Each structure stands twice: as structure tokens, then as C-alpha cells.
């Protein structure tokens, strides 16, 4: 087999299970435009996987905005309240999570987002959120001292399964280059489902790159196949 068998699965949230990256882009673009600055794709792609305060720091510095990172986060926060409750799931997300849960595969969420942000975004998807054994929410978690590409979020997340799986027994799903780097640094296999604008060269460390979660074949990693 090309891939190693896994027992536990860790999911990123934004841009992977949820189509929320477009909404972050909308909020950041709006706030930057208010101060006459352009929020570019180049900047956006460098932020994927960061915690909120790390994004705010990088944006305010890179674009030289006349705002502190706290002020920037506050302005974005007002927009999130309007944008996030209507966020949609990515194609194939619900099917995969429900499938793994149904077959007793332990699954967890490993997101850089805060608890409040997850609550806002998952308001209409609570049923799906409840299928995870636990949620590791980086920005609200004192053990997660850094955002991705640091591996700590995946290490902390894996350690919270009662079975304490080894890194090589864990499979990570990610959409971001920083997330792929974090998973690989944690010594876990990682399936990348990136934004199509991301240069594949940046994802060369991913175990597998897919266009959509709908294309994932669980049996490749020793997980129960669909229809089983
Ligand atoms: Mg993501």
C-alpha cells in the first residue's frame, strides 16, 4: 500500500470542512479597503492556518494600517457576526465526517480558530460538530501556544484521544500550506484539499493532494470504505 494505515483522523475547519476562508477574505478586504489598502491573495495565502491575532499582526504590519492588531480584530469581529452564521459546508465534508463517525473511527477537530469563532460558524452545523470526540481550538487553548505551521496543535489534539495514538497512526485533513507543514512536522500523514490557487509545489510534502473531499477514498489509509 502506498499509504500507511491510520486509526485516528484530525480535521482542520476553515477552508477544509467549512467554506469560511472566502468570508475571512471578505472581512479582511473590507477593513483594509476602508484604510485605502488592498488585501491581496499573496498575503491571504500566507495567513492560512494562522491564529486570529497572528493574522491581525501580519496584516496591520504588512499593509502599514493605522490600527493596532486589537483594533483590526475588533473591526473584523463586527463583520464576522454578519458573515459567519450563513457559512456553508465544503462538498463532501458532511459525508466524510458522518461516515468515519458511523464506523467508530475516532475523529477530532484541530482548528486555529477561537471557541467563540467556532460557535458562530457552526451555529447551523451543530449536529456535525457533535460527532467529533473533541475540539482543539488553538486560539482559545492554553496548551496550543502557536499557530500552524507549528505542529503543537496536532500534537495536543492527538494527545486528547483516550487511546493516545502515535503520530504515525493519525491522518490530518488540511487546506493550507501552513497546515500541511504543521502536520508533517508532527510526523503525521496529511491529505491536502487546497484552494485551487495554491501552487502545488508548496504542497509537495503532503501525503496526498485532492481537488475535493468528495474524492477521498478512506480505504487508501486502511479506513472503512464508503458503502461498507
Ligand atoms: Mg484551513
UniProtKB/TrEMBL annotation:
The keyword Protein transport does not apply. The keyword Metal-binding applies. It catalyses: psi-UMP + H2O = pseudouridine + phosphate. InterPro entries: HAD-like_sf, HAD-SF_hydro_IA, HAD_2, HAD_sf, PGP-like_dom2. SUPFAM superfamilies: HAD-like (SSF56784). Keywords: Hydrolase, Magnesium, Metal-binding. Its EC number is 3.1.3.96. Its cofactor is Mg(2+). Pfam families: HAD_2. It is an enzyme of class 3 (hydrolase). Belongs to the HAD-like hydrolase superfamily. CbbY/CbbZ/Gph/YieH family. NCBIfam families: HAD-SF-IA-v3. This is pseudouridine 5'-phosphatase. The lineage of its organism: Eukaryota, Metazoa, Ecdysozoa, Arthropoda, Hexapoda.
Amino acid at each position: 500500500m502506498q499509504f500507511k494505515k491510520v486509526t485516528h483522523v484530525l480535521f482542520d475547519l476553515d477552508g477544509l470542512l467549512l467554506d469560511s476562508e472566502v468570508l475571512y477574505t471578505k472581512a479582511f478586504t473590507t477593513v483594509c479597503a476602508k484604510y485605502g489598502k488592498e488585501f491581496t491573495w499573496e498575503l491571504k495565502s500566507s495567513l492560512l492556518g494562522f491564529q486570529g491575532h497572528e493574522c491581525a499582526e501580519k496584516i496591520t504590519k504588512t499593509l502599514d494600517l493605522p490600527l493596532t492588531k486589537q483594533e483590526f480584530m475588533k473591526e473584523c469581529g463586527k463583520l464576522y457576526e454578519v458573515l459567519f452564521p450563513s457559512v456553508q459546508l465544503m462538498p463532501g465534508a458532511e459525508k466524510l465526517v458522518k461516515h468515519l463517525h458511523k464506523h467508530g473511527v475516532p475523529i477530532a477537530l484541530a482548528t486555529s480558530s477561537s471557541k467563540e469563532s467556532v460557535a458562530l460558524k457552526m451555529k447551523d452545523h451543530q449536529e456535525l460538530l457533535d460527532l467529533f470526540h473533541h475540539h482543539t481550538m488553538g486560539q482559545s487553548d492554553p496548551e496550543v501556544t502557536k499557530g500552524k505551521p507549528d505542529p503543537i496543535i496536532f500534537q495536543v489534539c492527538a494527545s486528547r484521544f483516550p487511546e493516545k495514538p502515535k503520530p504515525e497512526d493519525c491522518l490530518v485533513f488540511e487546506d493550507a500550506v501552513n497546515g500541511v507543514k504543521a502536520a508533517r512536522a508532527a510526523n503525521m500523514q496529511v491529505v491536502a484539499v487546497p484552494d485551487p490557487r495554491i501552487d502545488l509545489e508548496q504542497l509537495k510534502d503532503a501525503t496526498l493532494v485532492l481537488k475535493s473531499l468528495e474524492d477521498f477514498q478512506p480505504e487508501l489509509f486502511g479506513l472503512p470504505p464508503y458503502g461498507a
